[in-house]
Design a protein that fits this description.
114 residues, mainly alpha, 2 helices, 0% strand, rod-shaped
């Protein structure tokens, strides 16, 4: 177990040293790229960009569909709430209309002597 730890430590040191050497040599010729995204230009850069962008866009389609469905569901539930509010408002008007009609009928019957 101890030899594995030493070997692992040795590998990590080599990787770190290699990174430090390559970054110090490349930093003198080009600005640092903290994001790690290829930003250079070449004959193949647009092809590489397209090759990366297209699958990412395709992969994001299900997420976009779910977002759209949530918007539809949200607006549907808002419409249902609005319908319920309108229905609760219609009931008193309906009762007022029925009361008016009953009073009118009674007034007409009284006026006609019935």
């Amino acid at each position: 177990m101890g030899s594995n730890t030493g070997t692992l430590s040795s590998l990590l040191n080599r990787i770190t040293t290699s990174r430090n050497n390559s970054s110090s040599s490349s930093s003198s010729s080009s600005p640092p790229n903290p994001t790690g995204i290829f930003t250079g230009s070449s004959a193949y850069s647009s092809d590489l960009s397209n090759a990366i962008t297209r699958p990412v866009n395709i992969a994001s389609l299900p997420i976009q569909q779910l977002t759209n469905e949530q918007l539809v569901i949200g607006s549907t539930s808002q419409m249902a709430a609005a319908d319920a509010a309108i229905a609760s408002t219609e009931q008193p008007f309906s009762e007022i209309t029925q009361l008016y009609q009953a009073q009118r009928t009674a007034a007409l019957q009284y006026a006609n002597g019935r």
